[in-house]
Amino acid sequence: MEHPEPGTVVVTASGDGVYTQQVTTASHTLLVDEPVAVGGADAGPNPYELLLASLGSCTAITLRMYADRKGIPLTRATVRLRHDRIHAQDCERCETERGLLSRITREIELEGELDDEQRAKLMLIADKCPVHRTLSSEIVIETQETGR
C-alpha cells in the first residue's frame, strides 16, 4: 500500500487474520489485532493498547522535552497505563453521574537526581502533553462513507 500524506492514518484489513488490521502512516506500517481469546490472531497490539501507547509515549516525550529545555536532570521517565471501565457514581471528579465510563490510570516513574520541586513540576507537565489534552477534552468524530 502507498503511504498517505503526513497527518493521515489509513487502516485496512491486512488479509492475514479475522481482525488483523494494517495501519499505515506517512512513514510507518504496523499491525493491530485482537487477542486469540476473542478470535484474533494477536498479530499486534489491540486498539486500546495503541490508545494507551499514544498517551504514554506523548507523556514521556513531553517530560523529556520539558526537562531538556529547563535543564532538569531527568534521566528517564517510565509510564505505565491501564484502561478499564468504572461506574460513574464511583468517580469523584467526573461530570457523568450514571452508567459506565472509561478510566485510564497512569503511573509515572521519574529517574534522575531530581529534587521534590522538580518532581512536582514534571508531574504537572505530564498532564499537559497534547494527547492527554485531547483525551480530556470534548472530541468530535465526523464520519462519512467514501469510495461509492
TrEMBL record:
This is OsmC family protein. It comes from the Bacteria. InterPro entries: KH_dom-like_a/b, OsmC/Ohr_fam, OsmC/Ohrsf. It holds the Pfam family OsmC.
